[in-house]
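Thread: 2-phosphoglycolic acid complex, take 2
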Amino acid sequence: MRKKIVAGNWKMNKTLEEAHALVAELTGMVADEVKTPTEVVVCVPFPYLLPIKNQLGAGARVKVGAQNCSEHEWGAYTGETSATMLASAGIPYVILGHSERRQYFGENSSLLVKKIDRALGQKLTPIFCCGEPLEVREKGTHEGLVKQQVEEALFHLSAEVIQKVVIAYEPVWAIGTGKTASSQQAQDMHAVIRQHLAGKFGPSVAQDISILYGGSVKADNAKELFAQPDVDGGLVGGASLKSREFVEIVKGVA
Ligand code: PGA
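Output below.
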């Protein structure tokens, strides 16, 4: 059975003090209100990883994740943080290939292969992001592009290892725009991704891989999106910065 996951992507937001306050509210609400086994993750800026992990405590219900890692393990790479470092700090998740990394930092599939391998090599769970820009959606070639993104970054893995990856489908036109994909558009693409995984790794492996939807997920659209058979939760940006909104999204998982 694949896991249901709701992960918040804080991006470059919040002071440390605000981060602690948000996590304190969030953990209280999750403990009181979330009755499902949904995995709840907050992907926070690098300097907050350890303070937030310590705040959450050992065996916490809410997990912490990073938003990126280096393709290198160690060395003279000023400003970079490696998967080995994240693992040594006990961080279980890392977002890789977010469209903002692809767009503003030139990340491409060959780089992402290295980052995915570093993360998996350290037993981190990568949340691998894929998704098409608006012009590709308008041309109608979005399924081909997303299949290609998944194939280029993940198809070198073995059937055993691919099951350790979480995929997030995030149409670029829906990120931070308030323009959510319809639940049907999300389901259609998730089914395409799962079918593509099945073709390469076999149907039972594909059935076990969590595929999250991201792009303007809100409390009022989460339930319908998460009710789709191939949507296993969400990767949430803006709405993860407010505890009440984020918890309502988590509660949108049946
Ligand atoms: P958004 O961002 O929820 O603010 O659209 C999603 C993401 O970038 O992961």
